[in-house]
Amino acid sequence: MGRIPDDKIQEIRDRTDIVEVISSYLPLKHSGANHQGLCPFHQEKSPSFNVNSTRQIFHCFGCGVGGNVFSFLMRMEGVSFPEAVKRMGERVGIEVEEEAVSPEELRQREARERLVRINEVANDFYHQVLLEGDGAVAGRRYLRQRGYEGETVRSYQLGFAPEGWDALATHLAQKGFSTEDVRQTGLVRPGKQGRGDYDLFRNRLLFPIHDLQGRVVAFGGRVLDDSLPKYINSPETTVYHKSEIFYGLYQARDAMRHSGEALVVEGYFDVLALHRAGFAGAVATCGTALTAEHARLLKRYAEKILLIFDEDAAGRKATFRAMDALLSVGLAVSVVGLPVGEDPDSLVKARGEAGFRECLDAARPVLEVFIEDQLRVQDDSVEGRARAAEQVLERIRRLPGDLERSLYTKRLAELTGFDVELLQGKSRGGSAVAPVRRAAARPVADPKPPAIETGQAQKYLLRLMMVDDQQRQRVREEGLAGLFFNEENRGLAEYLLGCEDEDGRLPDDLFSPHLSETQQSLLSGLTLGEDLGWADNPEKIFTDCRRAVSHYVLKRRLKEIGALEIEAKSNNDEDTLMQYLRERTEINQKLKKKL
Questions:
Q1: Which DSSP category does 166 fall into?
Q2: Which residue, 267, 319, 412, 571, shows the most beta carbons closer than 10 Å to its own?
Q3: What CATH code would you report for 103-239?
Q4: Residue 233 pairs with which residues in a beta bridge?
Q5: Structural fold of domain 244-362
Q6: Which residues of the chain have pLDDT under 50?
Q7: Per-residue pLDDT, 446
Q8: Is the domain defined by 6-92 classed in CATH 3.40.630.30?
């Protein structure tokens, strides 16, 4: 997609009423200067979602999400920024003409559009065959026997590939698609020895795989008997990358937003079974392990992930691989245990919604399950426990929160008998766990963390930059590195400095597609937040914020020293240990002066 001119984007924003747009998704009530409603991006009982008509922005003071009308549409519909602009343009009657793209970019775009169109036509063909085709009698019978008819079949657009050698190939040729384009989808393959092209899927029940715009980009196919392979999937194409897409996400995303939870299962039928039973937030990976791209995608819609995989060795391996990807992006992850021999589909049939709900309620944090698993597979020797501890610590390091890392490290110490201070040092990064019981001495405790650790002081300074031209110039002169330790905040401060006009003033509209989702949310919160006297005493606020950043730097060094002291003790390096103790004392004295 080519670049949309900035003046066209601004014209669409000027013609768009964000209150009207958001009201088409959720009810809003007028409240003071804003409109309020229940946030669509997290579950809440009291409205904290605010929409400001004057500034044309929204912000939820519950989950922190915010931005402009394009940001809202991108989150709600899962579309890109250019697509959001085009949709809003259509809504207000403005045609969006993209700036010229290169011939190669145009060729690639048209090729992708042709692939999507072929998949859509193939899906219509397969779906109609399932509903009415003579060759799909066995498919309809199979679905009835498993309890899937009517709404589920139509909602997920299930289909059936007839047994013939080239039924789809013939159909697509009759629709005028070129042989080369059809082959690019992977749905049809070239025949050998002079035979014509043949269909990839034959005599299989088909599950169309949708992207976030609801377009069919691939298929999964299942046999109706015990023949192998049981499942085959479309190959990867320019429009289908299995490491970046979930089966059922297009249908599940609204339910995820409202509940804050996503259920990740293994199979297509598991998704259908849970959807039918009222658990609409279920998705499955498309025949691949859960990846970092999958994790980032889920984080757009949910805060908690429930993993529901088989209890066998392969299922446990898949669970822990998913754990690695999900924990790294800050998601809460739990494991749902099912009775032996059951999967979500069979369990829902046997015990119904209530029985499956009991399993969900009994879900356990995935890291707890991983700790138990590692201690079980390793022997009970000191060396075995050390190996298990190393595996667990590698995962604890990926947790984004200090408190969560600390609690799991203490739990690991209880289960292994290793010294908690030693493990805490390793959880922040360090050498291998030594099989010792107790360290020689306890490090001096860190002082109480300042407000800067929550990012509050940086928000004060960012707000000052938005309302006070002189203080913004002062930030420019002193430099961002010494004032902002958080990358997102520092990036927003840099952006504000770059927004100034020739007179050193900021524009009324500060939102830009170049800002990250986090930065847009932060900007909307600062804009719509209560006025706490930001400009009454800017000198004091600036000084306090700078002092808090300095405090944070010293605190961070104290944590580093704690790990270094433990390592020096383990190596019996008294000279180095004394050096760190002297540095710790000097830092503590500086911190006391700043309190």
A1: S
A2: 412
A3: 3.90.980.10
A4: 220
A5: Dna Topoisomerase Vi A Subunit; Chain: A, domain 2 (3.40.1360)
A6: 1, 430-454
A7: 37
A8: no
